[in-house]
Fold these 2 entries.
Entry 1:
Amino acid sequence: MSAPWQWQCYPDARGAAEAAARHILPLLDKPRASFAISGGSTPKLLFEELVKAPIAWDRVHLFWVDERAVPPTDPQSNYKLAEEFLIGPAAIPAGNVHRIRTEMAPEPAAKWYTDEIREFFAIENDELPQFDIVQLGMGPDAHTASLFPGEPLIEDRKGIAAAVFAPKVPRSRVTLLPGVLLTAKHTAFLVSGADKAPAARAVFNDDYDPQRLPSQLVARGAPNVYWFLDNAAGRELLFQRRKI
């Protein structure tokens, strides 16, 4: 995304989630759709909106942008959140759910996930998958997926998934890598909360420096990127827009 007008703000987190769902649903309406999702409180709202739609969920294959190294039953698990608010309510078949196996150690879990993605997309070792839609969030430090500021893997354009050590707990995680995020056909950022406002402004307006602002990597490098923010997260962007 090269221009800052591919973002929109909504009165609250629910409104942003509803708009993101309206954007994502047509992209899933195909014989076999690949959808990589994120965790956190805002995606919970997105999942609640998605399951209201009468689409053929048995044709949607779910993957995860990242996962924390906790059991799948742990409250901090991104899988558990999706299972409760999307997979179960939408009755997505178990064979369509490609979770990260965090009952393993992070390194073998990343390898297992990489192999599963390669098998699903029928790609060779030197190829990257192309997801139909990737849903991302952003932290107050402008991290996305589990790519935090200063992470050396931000420079990786060849790998699919890797174990990472995050600066916040739980520290051990598995994440999709930049090459995969940049190759996705469509990307939807869903961001809420006033603590994200400075990062949102910086991602769009500061000089390109993904080591400092990892979300810039996707925001300025991937095709078809759209941002759905609540007014709290987008307040500095809205203030800038009013000044123009």
Entry 2:
Amino acid sequence: MKALKISVCMATYNGESHVIAQLVSILNQLGLDDEVVISDNGSSDETINLVRSLNDQRVKLFVFEKKSVVGNFENALKQAAGDVIFLADQDDIWLDGRVEKMIDELRFFDLVVTNSKIVDNNLKILHCSLFDFVKPRVGFFANLYKNSYIGCCMAFNRKVLVKAIPFPEGLPMHDWWIGLVGGIVGSVKFIDEPFLLYRRHSNNVSETSNKSSRGYFDKARDRFYIFNRIVYRFIFGV
């Protein structure tokens, strides 16, 4: 069976404290023909120099100047050449066996999501299952109502990538969008076993394991917007 080329897409911004540990945990599970595509959003610390110091030909570094978390991830995804794409945050740790398990599942499913252990800044375990908070479910409307697609836990095939990009202008969350697209174009699998140390600290952008501070109106607007964009993408091809 032909080996699948893997692209790991990571968005970085002032991640000097943890980015090397994360990259080492990723690269140790990749083959020589795989790649880690990094898009940096104008870091002012040592992130870029640290990435370059690895001197690993599998690491491909790009710069995205517009300040946007979603745009930064999209920039990385646009450079990906792999058959399968993993999303990665700059400050987590991949556990052994993650790539192998997800690749095995991607031979049968189009998008897979693994569980994670929630840890603090020093990797002390705070909770053994992210899924206890996310309560993942399969289905478009279930996930439109409450997103269970967490980017750093996801991998998907190129069929999903082709339909997911370019992102609609003003997209509130890239992982939410990719997960919904994956469920439309193919099949989704949630893996209960944790394969990631999901670091929670004051610099995290997402609010996954915390109560959201967004109001009801903002949440409703986001859902309407994403539903609208899905309709335009899959019915009108926009």
